[in-house]
Design goal:
This protein has 129 residues and is of the alpha+beta class. Helices cover 33% and strands 13% of the residues. It has five helices and four strands, in the order E-H-E-H-H-H-E-E-H. Helix 1 links the parallel strand 1 and strand 2.
């Protein structure tokens, strides 16, 4: 998505919300040059507000996750293996908030490899404007 931000409208704001510990977040930000703000929600209030639950161990650490890690390894996108320090069962999502503050579109992931298609996300952003 980061390489397609120029396709979004001028009034579009993008933010990443995470619950990661400050030291882990600092390391992540050092490794990734993100062109948008990263907001920390240590209590996961935002996650609860959007109805983001927790996945099962089988779904989160199953064969699909293993295949995704293999793909990242092949693409040289893994920066060394690190022990997980956060709640790996917390599910994520992607949301588009309309200019009037209402939820215009949402994607509730059911695992770490479940993300919306970028074209679909950009279309939802365009429709919300």
């Amino acid at each position: 998505m980061g390489d397609r931000l120029d396709e979004l409208g001028a009034n579009t704001e993008v933010a990443l919300v995470t619950f990661t510990a400050p030291e882990s977040l600092a390391d992540y930000l050092d490794r990734n040059d993100l062109p948008f703000p990263v907001l920390r929600d240590s209590e996961r209030d935002t996650y609860r507000m959007f109805g983001l639950g927790r996945g099962t161990i089988r779904r989160i650490w199953g064969w699909r996750a293993g295949l995704r890690y293999l793909e990242l390894f092949r693409e040289n996108r893994l920066h060394g293996w690190q022990r997980a320090t956060d709640d790996t069962l917390q599910l994520g999502g992607d949301f588009v908030i309309a200019p009037d503050g209402t939820l215009a579109w949402g994607f509730w992931g059911d695992g770490p490899d479940d993300r919306p298609d970028v074209d679909e996300l950009i279309a939802a952003i365009s429709a919300a404007q």
